[in-house]
Amino acid sequence: MKELNEHADCVLPIDNQSLFDIISKIDLMVNSGKLSTTIKPKSLVTSSAGALKKQHQKPFDAMNNIVANLLLNLTSSARFEGSLNMDLNEISMNLVPFPQLHYLVSSLTPLYTLADVNIPTRRLDQMFSDAFSKDHQLIRADPKHSLYLACALMVRGNVQVSDLRRNIERLKPSLQFISWNQEGWKTSLCSVPPVGHSHSLLALANNTCVKPTFMELRERFMRLYKKKAHLHHYLQIEGMEESCFMEAVSSLSALIEEYNQLDATRSMPVEDLPRLSVAV
Do 154 and 23 belong to one domain? Predict the structure, then answer.
């Protein structure tokens, strides 16, 4: 985390438990033909129409496949034609307002693996709603109830700019953006859809909902560090000293504090600043 804080331009954290929950949802979609959000957390079996389905035969293959779909959507503008293609550099340029706050929460819709591409297609408007649902996030987080700094919508398929704008206007009232970036949306349109689907959407959100993940990480680290557990493995390496561990904790704590300061602004009123007028 210390290296990511200091040297990365942009980070997309992904949670194994979230990926496994998504695979469970995909299994239900394949069996029932529709998306169900009533998944028992951390369950090894899922129920569909009264029948029990065994745990996914190759869960890690399927989980890696979801990550591959994320990368395919992320790079689609660089590989295919589109009316509103987006360069990868534009992601960090538009979604990272402060150097350290470069952690983006990603969500995909529709949910599928390459083995299950023939699942029912989601309606366009429902697809946009799904992208902001906690059930579609690739990390255990609920961005809809946290503070947005910026958000990118990367769409593939036969979708018009008007469809994008209409759905942004529809969703804006339910999303809380920081006061100084109320119009913090970045959009991308690639005309080539993924295999087996008419359209898809990747949403990248710079959102304070990642803070609990970092807090849990710090808590788990400190639980081990207080007992000096496993330290000897690292201290045998030349140049690695015990002070490095406290520096790492300080770096993570500083990041958490930055998110705390942003969350503290949530109750502040949104100022309607005057637009720049140009005299001709």
Answer: yes
Helix, strand or coil for residue 247?
helix
**Of the candidate ranges 97-101, 110-114, 181-185, the one whose mean pLDDT is the lowest:** 110-114
Question: Which of 209, 225, 253 is at the close of a domain?
Answer: 209
Q: Mean pLDDT check: name the lowest of 75-89, 119-133, 141-155, 193-207.
A: 119-133
In whole numbers, what is the pLDDT of the chain averaged over residues? 84
DSSP reduced 3-state for 67: helix
- pTM for this predicted structure: 0.83
**131/163 same-domain check:** yes
For 157: left if phi > 0, alpha if psi spans -120 to 50, otherwise beta; the answer is: left
Q: Is 102 helix (H, G, I), strand (E, B) or coil?
A: coil
Q: Which residues have a Cβ under 8 Å from the Cβ of 79 and sit 6 or more positions away? A: none
My answer on whether 147 and 247 are in the same domain is no
Domain check: are 162 and 237 in the same one? no
Query: 48 falls in which pLDDT band (50, 70, 90)?
Result: very low
Domain encompassing residue 167: 9-27+60-209
Is 142:242 a contact under the CB 8 Å cutoff?
no
Q: Give the mean pLDDT of 18-42.
A: 67
Q: Is 43 inside any structural domain? A: no
Same domain for 259 and 169: no
Chain CA centroid to CA 78, Å: 20
